[in-house]
Design brief:
By secondary structure, this protein is of the alpha/beta class. The chain has one domain (12-370): Rossmann fold, CATH 3.40.50. Helices cover 52% and strands 7% of the residues. It has helices spanning 18-29, 31-44, 46-49, 68-76, 95-104, 133-139, 159-176, 192-198, 211-231, 233-242, 259-270, 274-295, 297-302, 308-313, 315-326, 332-340, 354-370, and strands at residues 58-62, 81-82, 113-114, 122-123, 180-184, 203-208, 303-307. The strands form two sheets. It has a five-stranded parallel beta sheet with strand order 2-5-1-6-7. Strand 3 (113-114) and strand 4 form a beta hairpin. Helix 9 packs across helix 12 (274-295) and helix 15 (315-326) packs across helix 16. The longest helix is centred in the last third of the chain and has 22 residues, at 274-295. It is globular, with a radius of gyration of 20 Å. The two termini are 33 Å apart.
């Protein structure tokens, strides 16, 4: 979402420019046409990507508000890394042509603005963003249907998507002149096995956060996005087009294979029972992650779980381990500078009563303990 001058009754973080709204809608409504155009681009720029391979792609994933954006930004600053940026929307299916065009157009001077989440993270059109989901939705139109399992394991096979996806990454690497691909995709938590089959040398950074603080942040964001999308309907359209269903008027739970549980979570949310709904969702998501890692030794070796509390409490050591797992060399000075800006949030506090805290702990504690938390209640 692009900020513009706000009117008295709107939040600038939820404003969507008319150009972006109409162009984004055009791409969203015609996925097959853009797949064909992407394939045409691949054929035409074949010489430019002939020697480009996807080497050890890096995937950052976690339930929203677990620190994925902070980790994405630090990794994306590395000179070897290419990732999607805000400027890649809406013509993401043709990354080579679109980025070449952008490089020829004089860019206006930008001032970084706080993103719609109101979490202190400021962005420009060149900031990294999670846009890969647009590719998944183009090939899997029902991938965000809560009534269907979203899990893709090692046995999944979709040759058309796999060819397009690999070519897309290679084109992005070529036009950015980088060696390593980085993607933030929270929905990739349900696709870890599939992605690891596609790229056996991939590295996964899986973010998690203490349930009480995590749920408090999730609830805060839900209220913020409902208010913002209610005032600006184009913001809701935008979120659907980029595949962000974590919050807002069209919030959807990821179905990790339990249809009844996913439906129940939806019923809790729709009934206004936010605390229990988020607690059951947190437990469902991270139980799926824990099971996936436990059952797949190769995936477990390729993945590193990063606790938000460690990122904030011991930032330098955590960042050093994070970069090492990703296979990215980084200097001590860079680590020190990055660590200096990391700290626990101070702009909100969990405000649960005793009954709500007990409920969160009862639901999340068994899963939280699998990730080293002493209880589910922080």
């Amino acid at each position: 979402m692009n900020a513009r001058q706000p009117t008295p009754d709107t939040d600038p973080g939820f404003q969507v420019t008319p150009w972006m709204h109409h162009a984004g809608g055009w791409v969203h409504r015609h996925p097959r046409a853009w797949i064909k155009l992407g394939n045409l681009e691949t054929r035409i720029v074949g010489d430019a990507i002939a020697d480009v391979t996807v080497d050890r792609p890096i995937y950052v994933a976690g339930l929203a508000r677990s620190g994925t954006t902070i980790v994405l930004e630090h990794l994306a600053a590395h000179p070897e890394v290419a990732t999607h940026r805000y400027a890649d929307f809406p013509f993401l299916p043709v990354p080579y042509w679109w980025n070449r065009w952008l490089s020829l157009v004089p860019g206006a001077t930008e001032q970084a603005r706080e993103r719609a989440h109101q979490d202190g993270i400021k962005v420009t059109s060149k900031s990294p963003e999670a846009f890969e989901e647009m590719l998944w939705m183009a090939f899997f139109p029902d991938i965000h249907d809560p009534a269907r399992s979203a899990v893709l394991g090692r046995d999944a096979s979709y040759p058309e998507f796999e060819a397009f996806y690999d070519q897309h990454i290679r084109k992005l690497l070529a036009v950015r002149k980088r060696r390593r691909y980085l993607a933030k995709g929270n929905y990739n938590l349900a696709r870890l096995g599939y992605l690891h089959r596609l790229y056996p040398d991939a590295r996964f950074l899986l973010m998690i956060r203490d349930p009480v603080w995590h749920i408090a942040s999730l609830m805060k964001q839900q209220d913020l996005f409902v208010a913002g999308e209610s005032k600006e309907p184009r913001a809701l359209d935008h979120m659907r087009r980029v595949g962000h269903y974590e919050f807002g008027l069209d919030r959807r739970a990821i179905n990790t294979g339990d249809d009844k549980l996913t439906a129940y979570i939806g019923e809790l949310w729709n009934g206004g029972n936010e605390v229990e709904g988020w607690a059951r969702y947190w437990a469902a998501i991270y139980e799926h992650v824990a099971d996936a890692l436990e059952q797949d030794p190769a995936l477990r070796e390729a993945a590193r779980v990063v606790r938000y509390e460690d990122l904030c409490g011991t930032p330098r050591d955590t960042l050093e381990a994070l970069f090492a797992h990703a296979g990215l060399a980084v200097s001590g000075d860079t680590l020190e500078q990055a660590a200096a800006g990391l700290h626990a949030p101070t702009y909100y506090q969990p405000r649960f009563n005793d009954r709500e805290r007990s409920l969160i702990e009862a639901i999340t504690a068994p899963v939280a303990r699998r990730f080293g938390y002493s209880t589910g209640g922080g």
